[in-house]
Design goal:
Elements (H helix, E strand, L loop, with lengths): L2 E5 L2 H10 L1 E2 L7 H5 L5 E8 L7 E11 L5 E2 L9 E7 L6 E2 L24 E4 L1 H12 L13
Parallel strand pairs: 1-3
Antiparallel strand pairs: 1-8, 2-6, 3-4, 4-6, 4-7, 5-6
């Protein structure tokens, strides 16, 4: 089992949660293929809306990759991004990143904490996942209550 961060505006994350899918890096298939069924993804939203400038700076969704394969989805003519199905935990408490910066192992330099998110998708250590997911769920996360797959 591996743990991932995906980066998207909060409005786009909400569409994915509602539809039960994740879409990463402007629809590229490669990041989705890195994830396997049973892996976990936490979305970080730097902004509230894709075209807006209002900061969000919160972890906004938490879910487990389902058994599905990566698939193309035509959003509108000429734009066919790739998606992967996710079993999202709802409700989920949006969790601010700033208080967590000193505690997150994946952040190499707290002064440049936002740099890592520019990649759009990256793996994180289990310890970071458990910290963030525990706050988002308001319950401790452990191996015994992690697996949501049917």
């Amino acid at each position: 089992m591996r743990y991932w961060i995906g980066v998207a505006s909060r409005d786009h994350v909400e569409k994915g949660v509602k539809g039960g899918f994740c879409q990463l890096c402007h629809g590229k298939a490669t990041p989705l293929k890195r994830m396997m069924p049973g892996d976990w993804i936490i979305y970080y939203s730097p902004k509230e809306t894709f075209n807006g400038n209002e900061p969000c700076q919160r972890f906004t969704a938490l879910g487990q990759i389902s058994e599905s394969e990566v698939y193309p989805f035509e959003m509108f003519p000429g734009f066919i991004p790739f998606r992967r199905n996710v079993a999202f935990i709802t409700p989920c408490k949006p969790t601010p990143i700033r208080p967590l910066i000193p505690r997150l192992l994946f952040i190499d330099d707290p002064k440049k904490w936002g740099y890592k998110f520019r990649f759009g998708h990256f793996e994180i250590p289990k310890e970071d996942f458990e910290l963030i997911a525990g706050l988002m769920r308001a319950t401790p996360v452990s191996e015994s209550n992690l697996d949501l797959r049917e």
